[in-house]
Fold this sequence. Notes:
Chain A is mainly alpha-helical and 407 residues long.
Amino acid sequence: MIKFSExxxxxxxxxxxxxxxxxxxxIRVNPIEKVIEWRWHNIMLVGIGSFIISYxxxxxxxxxxxxxxKAKSGEEAKISMIREALSNPRVxxxxxxxxxxxxxxxxxxxxxxxxxxxxxxxxxxxLGLGLNIVVGLAGLLDxxxxxxxAVGAYSYALLNFHYGIGFWTALPIGGALAACFGIILGFPVxxxxxxYLAIVTLGFGEIIRIILENWNEFSFGPSxxxxxxxxxxxxxxxxxxxxxxxxxxxxxxxxxxxxxxxKRLQDSRIGRAWIALREDEIACQAMGIxxxxxxxxxxxxxATWAGMAGVIFAAKTTFINPASFTVWExxxxxxIVVLGGMGSVVGVITGAFILMLLPEYLRAFSEYRMLIFxxxxxxxxxxxxxxxxxxxxxxxxxxxxTAERKR
Amino acid sequence: xxxxxxxxxxxGGLTRGSIYALIALGYTMVYGIIQLINFAxxxxxxxxxxxxLIVISVLSLLGLNQIAIIFIAAMVAVIYSTAYGYTVEKIxxxxxxxxxxxxxxISAIGMSLFLYNYVLLAQTSxxxxxxxxxxxxxxxxxxxxIFSSNELVxxxxxxxxxxxxxxxxxxxxxxxxxxxxxxxxxxxxxxxxDVNRVISATFIIGSATAALGGILxxxxxxxxxxxxxxxxxxxxxxxxxxxxxxSIPGAVLGSLVLGWTESFATGYISSxxxxxxxxxFLVLILIFRPAGILGRTDTEKV
Lengths: 407, 302
């Protein structure tokens, strides 16, 4: 039922937003020609839009409060359909089989253009899973993640340019170099608290980009490096189409490897230490976990994947320049992790596909891409901090009778 | 040694530092009260500058005189920035007050991204020329080659704002409530402080000073675009950390130190790496004195 007071509230909010957005949305000045453009139709848009959004916003907020109350009073939270389906091994196997078949036939069914988009999406899956180690598991907000991506890309490009080193040699070197950078950055900053860490990593990302842009003798400045060879296939020259298909399968393989490693890491001793560190640093130290070492491994391992993804990116586009490695790229990767669900492998993969593929197919909205990403970050944090597919916490239910009686 | 060049850099650094101080105040006050880095603060500053430019353009077409335009533009910019600051807090931070700090931080980054793209899409991606608002004073004539009237006004306004703010926090009721909330939010609530109002007030004051800074620096540099908020915000944050985050005199001191460092480093070393100096400085400070120059070190308790 729609109450009158609710409508009044929404009306008030929409008037407030019309006032708020008036100078920016309605007036556009051109100081050179001294012309002012009035766009009155935008008032209508803002008014109606904010009216509807405020309504939905309050409805969701109320539902979330109800959910919180339920969780507090001990009722079991409803398990979402997707998670239930995933926990059923038969459904899971069927789904995996379907995805596998789709992955194999994809480049033969769809055009080269589509395959290229898919490769980009897979690179972002890899980046997302790498950042997931740092942000999702260890709880360290890293806003300079793209710097490690840049290190990987440039290490392949420069090693190839100067010493003619091939893709397969560069792949581990790029990963290792990025890990080294992760450790170099990690040493001074890991003593800091969460929010300082975010700013320092952001600064680090910018430093790397500014250096790449200005140090012409080393990195060829803003013009970048061109003619980077695509990965070789046992020394056989491939045509453009074939080599793209080849990179595609390579990427599928690497993504599978990433998923495997991340899954294994998550359940290992070090993975448990990361999660413990995320939940409570002091309690974790009291349990005898070496805080610095654990954080450093998270940083270094996260950076390794970014470095390898960078090498592939350089090989795929055959041209790199510093403009590909801005701080916004870091934030897009963060958005993937947040939307999908921090700490959840399936979530991050889904998040990467949604955020990378949707803008490609909805060309009309691509202009608004970053605006929507910003809105996604805020709304996800407010309504579903766990992401779309959040991780299931391993819990042990105390439901035996002795416990009941003691109470 | 070239003394004239040295003084030019010294005064340039002072101006730079004053601007940083106006923005850093917002960071440090918000951090002092809710322990959150308000990433959207730089964007509020940018919106202040944009609103100022729009008002100036409209009014100068109407043909008002210069002084009236300056005051109306500054007032409108301050009103709009405070309205944005207030709304941002209500949408992105208030629902997350009891959530983990990482969530609030990500929400802040999202808000910053949103506002920045909002201005980019609704206005333009080009650089817009910003008129010089402050007339050249006659008594400044002999020094005009090293120090403009514009810079003098910036320094004076900053000093005035700092004094007013100190008085506000020391002697008014809301200032007292702010100090109480910063010390212990729950305890303040228990003794009858309306914490939500205090937080709103903090955002409003911070946004107002940022808007003043936005108009002053835009008039000094002579152009604006949608991107100015990002780098200015980061640097002001560095300044706030440098001085000791949460402390208002610390923010001013940190801003001045950062302003001079940048001014001398770009003047004597290289201007290509202007932004790198600020970040390296930040890392060094955080390693050797994490609490900042005037901040107090407190150990984290369970």
